[in-house]
Predict the 3D structure of the following.
Amino acid sequence: MKAHDSAIASRPIAVNTAGTLQAFGAVALFSLSFPATNWALRGFGPWSTVGLRGVLAALLAGVCLALSGARLPARRLWPGLLVVGAGCVVGFPVLTTLALQTSTTAHSAVVIGLLPLATAACAALRGRNGQPRRFWAAAGAGASVVVAFALLQHGGAPSRADLYLFGALLLCAAGYAEGGRLARELPGWQVIAWAVLAALPATALTTALTLPREPVHVTGHAVVGVLYLAGISQFGGFVLWYRGMAAIGVPRASQLQLAQPLLTLVWAALLLDEPIPAAAPVAALLVLASIAATQRTARRAPTAAPETALERSSLGVGRPGDQRVLR
């Protein structure tokens, strides 16, 4: 019995470690989204960029769902999937793309650094992820560093681009929190797959209306940017992200994203030749300290049942039974 108990006790640790690695892997992939958007805007208009990334992501998601034999989600899950689609597939891409027309990649990335705190707040408002005061204090400290850094870089006052970005992070936070909840009932990759398909009418209409009207200059950078946004930022990255959230909980996973602005600053310098602000190293140390503090104080999310966790360990290609827990 003791050996059996020990094996059971060790399982949540393995799941949480894997979940942390998956969530951080997604953060690393997402950190390239703004540079990719910058590249895409060099060849396509802002609305065309948003529409194309959504349509291409939906095509990829549809192929994956068809190959896996996935069944339609239960009716009770569709309101949540629509929230994910509205926040992560439509709202966030639209507002951040509009912001990047007038704001630098580096500045935009730092403002979006508030996303972890907004995500944790949305999850807490849902009444499922109450956290201790020390968690909120650490998260608030990290968010304060991000705000101070953003204002320092923009003369102490928010711009129109900042307002776009604030709106984007609120919509995305709602989508993240809802997606993390749904990933406990659906395989994480199916959450974003069904969400991008739910948003397809909006993204397809946007593409059809704006692509003929906005200027198009097809370049290698523009094509790579759109393909990255569609395949990774809009779909592939979310596969890891929602699986990680399901394993370690929405608040704890969201705080890992405090590292995303710092990674994006590096990419902005390497790929876009944007200068790295002098305050970036100090901000990096403070944000990383905040991440460490939130990881220590966050309450662990309940782990999935062994059968469900096993089913979610892969994409489940060719296994329609992946959703039998819903039936």
